[in-house]
From TrEMBL, chains A, B:
One GO MF term: ATP binding
Domain PurM-like N-terminal: 30-142
Residues the entry annotates as binding ATP: G123, D124, R150, S222
Catalytic activity line of the entry: thiamine phosphate + ATP = thiamine diphosphate + ADP
Involved pathway(s): Cofactor biosynthesis; thiamine diphosphate biosynthesis; thiamine diphosphate from thiamine phosphate: step 1/1
Binding site for substrate: H55, D272, F329
UniProt protein name: Thiamine-monophosphate kinase
Domain PurM-like C-terminal: 155-310
Lineage: Bacteria, Pseudomonadati, Pseudomonadota, Alphaproteobacteria, Hyphomicrobiales
Enzyme's top EC category: transferase
Similarity comment: Belongs to the thiamine-monophosphate kinase family.
Gene: thiL
Function summary: Catalyzes the ATP-dependent phosphorylation of thiamine-monophosphate (TMP) to form thiamine-pyrophosphate (TPP), the active form of vitamin B1.
């Protein structure tokens, strides 16, 4: 960790060194860290950046900002069937950072390290002179040759998603337009659910083994089910037919759907779900579903891969929907 | 690579996908990349962040910004004796980015990939809504157990630095205070040399083998020789005695020294050198020097480790200098 002004060295040592429990991290006191790959395993590497007021709000709890930054990376690893091992943290601090903020940020990382069995192995902290930016590189491992890509799907494979979709987008809309959920008649508990889903993604790390064992192609949903389905379809060289009625909705989102059907569609395409989207060969669906149930992760069949070249078709009760509804909406 | 607005996907594909020549990078079209560690090697991981107008100027040539961001990371790897293999690139684009800027930035990376035999394996691009920020995670490899840390030095070991010191700090001062070098009577060529040394660090990748074979402790100099010597001394649990007259100066810096001795000291402590600072056991100095000469990298003996607890003493013709001169000055 380099280039801190006086005082920042001490803060790093105080708050981040305790997170670097692996001996290879050298207590974050060296130029670099040493990582020993396990023989017979390959590494899966991912890097996601987050910026204040783009991917989170500056006044979000620091613990949640930290956890979100880590979790969006763990979500990528899970989608590849990789078990998370380590991460490097890049922190571009805004000018108004405080020791208390940093302490709470480190606390958020610490909680997630315990929850997801992952450890800090290095990083860098700078003063960015502008808004907070976080850059995390996460490292996972899979037995050699078993990483699940986006490209392994084939016609006939069944399309699954984990959890529920659209919640985070609805939570984000409430943040940007406070009162909108109230106007739709949602209860306090519904609102809390949606806001929490935006604030704190739940990476499906528990589904890692099921994905690795049974999925032919997999990714996480960050740009919205419709946009990401196109990515999966294109990479696998198939078309995907998605039955709208089969998309899993939380009770809160179902209420939004009841009040305003179009708005529910916008939420579904809104992104930030960090659920898994994967294809499973039809002879493995039973085993996949059983394995997911063992891992206590809900998975729903939402469609099928058919011969094609990367198109996504939405069906309602088997009838095609218009192409204008296929676009994911990153932000409102 | 996620969260790009429409159009950015295409730019990434156009400019960055060609840099991802390793099949494990999956052409940057997946959530993550796959990295196959070589059996018998451990990985060295480092991450440096750079922000516009903190670590470079926004109007620097994009090729140079890209190269600097990569090179400061390669410098960390070289200091550990690690051969660079791969890197992940995080790019927080400012609002005024253009396709032409991005093309030139990618071109800078491409040139350095060829020069240093390293390849892009993943990353993320976001719009940061503020100044450009770059976060690179670099991966190097060393045979198991041979990474050189800061902590291996012992009393009696000889202190070396590579190249020349203080040039980049003088170049930075010229950028901030144009005409200052002219006022000191430096020629155009001298000025170009110093400005170039700030703009484009020269990571001592060629010295990697010599460091791994002969150095007991090593780091790169980014915060200035005096500050970084303290880091090395502390990590190795020794005191370091540095002979000021032995510090290697370029002809340009020697002219600054002739005009203003104190200013030369400030430049020496200014940082951004990206030279190697290492300790070599006295029975290995001859072999280390021969190995560095084979690699065509100049190295200079600048001091000695003695029993102690992390102090740095500057000597002038064997006489101690005052403690007030020991502080590195990150910026003017």
């Amino acid at each position: 960790m380099e280039h801190e002004r006086p005082g920042e060295f001490d803060l790093i040592r105080t708050y981040f060194a305790p997170l670097a429990s692996d001996p290879g991290s050298l207590g974050l006191t060296d130029d670099a860290s040493v990582y020993h790959p396990r023989p017979g395993y390959e590494l899966v590497l991912t890097k996601d950046m987050l910026a204040a007021n783009v991917h989170f709000f500056s006044d979000d709890p620091p613990e949640a900002i930290a956890a979100k930054a880590l979790r969006v990376n763990l979500s990528d690893l899970a989608a590849k069937g990789a078990v998370p091992r380590a991460y490097l943290l890049g922190l571009g601090l805004s000018d108004d950072w405080t020791a208390q903020w940093l302490e709470r940020f480190a606390c958020g990382l610490s909680g997630d390290q315990a929850a997801f069995d992952v450890t800090l192995v290095g990083g860098d902290t700078i003063r960015s002179g502008s808004g907070l930016q976080i850059s995390i590189t996460a490292i996972g491992e899979v037995p050699d040759g078993t990483a699940v890509r986006r490209s392994g799907g084939a016609a006939g494979h069944v399309l699954y998603v984990s959890g529920t979709l659209g919640d985070a987008a609805a939570g984000l809309k409430e943040r940007l337009d406070p009162g909108f959920l109230n106007n739709l008649g949602l209860t306090d508990d519904d609102q809390k659910h949606l806001l929490h889903r935006y604030l704190l993604p739940q990476p499906r790390v528990a589904l890692t083994g099921s994905i690795r064992s049974f999925a032919s192609a997999s990714m996480d949903i960050s740009d919205g089910i419709f946009a990401d389905a196109r990515h999966l379809a294109k990479a696998s060289g198939v078309d995907l037919e998605i039955e709208i009625g089969a998309l899993p909705l939380s009770p809160a989102l179902r209420k939004i759907q009841g009040a305003d059907k179009d708005l529910a569609m916008v939420c579904l395409g809104g992104g930030d779900d960090y659920e898994i989207l994967c294809l499973v060969p039809s002879d493995a669906t039973e085993a996949f579903e059983a394995s997911a149930a063992d891992a206590s992760i809900a998975v729903s069949r939402v469609g099928t891969a058919v011969a094609g070249e990367g198109a996504v078709r939405l069906l309602q009760d088997g009838q095609p929907l218009g192409v204008g509804q296929l676009h994911g909406f990153r932000h409102f």
